[in-house]
């Protein structure tokens, strides 16, 4: 450093570049310090439920045994797959455990495919090592929401770069912030209820022993329409009290449809639901600037399953678990358990068998890059829209009128 008396010999042309460099360096250091001290919503979400409950010093290694359900087969097309016409996708096949079950039923009342599978799963769990368990996850995607209709009308490019950041349509009463089910979405949930009613009665498919639901309105309403009538009629095992879980929410960030409502609002609309401990009144996890990365979402799904299995382990029958969520969340769960990618259609569901091996210690913490910002618009989003309709409201009205006719 120059002695104090030497600074007077520096002329102004020499000092300006020096001050410029100092300013840039200090600005960089301050920005780095700020980014370190302010964790992203993505990182906060990944630790949102690490509250010490349910023996959080245990995590699980997940695998998906093949050849039990159709979605696990490479030959099954997600576009044409329909659980309602395929016995929930269960592959009909013989099991080593069949003879012992057949003796109970006799020749006059042969067991259904689901009864044979249920008996087989019970045998798997009985013969598994102490740290290993097998579970069936019923993964349901919510029915169609108004955000789905808006994206269909505007197109994905215009939706992602502009419309998804708004609260709704500025020219009508249509909103998609924490999107509600459309009329078709409610109809899809009722169809799932009818399907479950038939499966329980005819195929003797086991009902879930535990229910978990995303905090988003569209998922909460789908679960209610699907299962609440079954609970009222006594067709479900145990007490139907779904647990609202923050980690089960859709890909987080930017899109207002993925920003949840206040805790008090959820509790008022769904008094029969249990809201997990640590759930904040406001949505403190939604990020208006960054969208959660795929890697972070898959890791979050692993944390979710760790927590779900730690909770269900305390129940007498924890083999069948219902999770009502979103397309992105289901994709993340499938990736976390080693299942092939399978895009579940809106208002549909799949069943997946999972092998869980308990491991001592918490799941290793992982850091992820900051999520992506919204894409730039290629075309004017204000000019986007399906041809043949005046505007979004006209499109929604015509779609919902056709639903009413059906």
Tell me briefly what this model is.
With 406 residues, the chain is α/β, with parallel strands linked by helices. The chain has helices spanning 12-37, 41-46, 98-105, 113-127, 146-154, 156-161, 183-203, 217-232, 263-269, 294-312, 327-336, 392-405; strands at residues 58-63, 132-141, 210-213, 243-244, 274-275, 320-325, 349-360. β3, α8 and β4 (243-244) form a beta-alpha-beta unit.
Description:
This protein has one domain (40-145, 180-375): Phosphoglycerate mutase-like (Rossmann fold). It is 39% helix and 10% strand. The chain contains 12 helices and 7 strands. A 7-stranded mixed β-sheet has the order 1-7-2-6-3-4-5. It starts with 11 loop residues before the first helix and ends with a helix. Mean pLDDT is 88; it is low at 1-22, 28-38 and 49-54.
Q: Give the beta-strand count.
A: 7
Tally of discrete structural domains: 1
Content of β-strand: 5-15%
- Quaternary structure of the protein: single chain
């Amino acid at each position: 450093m120059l002695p104090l008396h030497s600074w007077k010999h520096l002329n102004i042309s020499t000092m300006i570049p020096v001050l410029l460099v100092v300013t840039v360096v200090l600005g960089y250091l301050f920005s780095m310090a700020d980014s370190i001290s302010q964790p992203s919503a993505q990182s906060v979400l990944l630790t949102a439920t690490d509250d010490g409950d349910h023996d959080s010093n245990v995590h699980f290694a997940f695998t998906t045994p093949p050849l039990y359900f159709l979605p696990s087969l490479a030959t099954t097309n997600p576009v044409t797959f329909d659980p309602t016409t395929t016995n929930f996708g269960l592959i009909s096949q013989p099991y080593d455990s069949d003879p012992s079950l057949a003796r109970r039923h006799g020749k006059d009342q042969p067991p259904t495919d689901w009864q044979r599978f249920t008996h087989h799963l019970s045998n798997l769990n009985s013969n598994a090592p102490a740290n290993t368990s097998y579970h069936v996850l019923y993964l349901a995607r919510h029915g169609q929401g108004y955000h789905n209709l808006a994206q269909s009308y505007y197109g994905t490019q215009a939706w992602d770069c502009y419309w998804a950041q708004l609260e709704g349509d500025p020219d009508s009463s249509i909103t998609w912030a924490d999107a509600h089910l459309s009329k078709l979405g409610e109809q899809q949930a009722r169809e799932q209820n009818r399907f479950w009613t038939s499966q329980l009665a005819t195929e003797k498919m086991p009902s879930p022993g535990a229910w978990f639901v995303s905090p988003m309105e569209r998922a909460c309403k789908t679960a209610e329409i699907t299962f609440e009538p079954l609970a009222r009629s006594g067709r479900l095992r145990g007490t139907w009290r779904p647990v609202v879980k923050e980690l089960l929410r859709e890909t987080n960030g930017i899109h207002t449809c993925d920003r949840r409502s206040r805790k008090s609002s959820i509790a008022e609309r769904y008094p029969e639901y249990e809201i997990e401990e640590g759930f904040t009144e406001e949505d403190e996890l939604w990020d208006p600037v960054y969208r959660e990365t795929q890697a972070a979402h898959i890791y979050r799904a692993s944390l979710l399953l760790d927590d779900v299995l730690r909770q269900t382990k305390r129940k007498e029958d924890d083999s069948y678990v219902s999770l009502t969520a979103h397309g992105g969340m289901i994709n993340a769960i499938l990736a976390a358990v080693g299942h092939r990618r399978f895009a579940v259609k809106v208002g549909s569901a799949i069943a997946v068998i999972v092998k869980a091996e308990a491991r001592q210690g918490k799941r290793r913490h992982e850091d992820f890059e900051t999520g992506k910002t919204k894409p730039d618009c290629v075309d004017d989003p204000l000019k986007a829209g399906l041809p043949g309709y005046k505007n979004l409201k006209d499109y929604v009205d015509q779609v919902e009128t056709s639903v009413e006719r059906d």
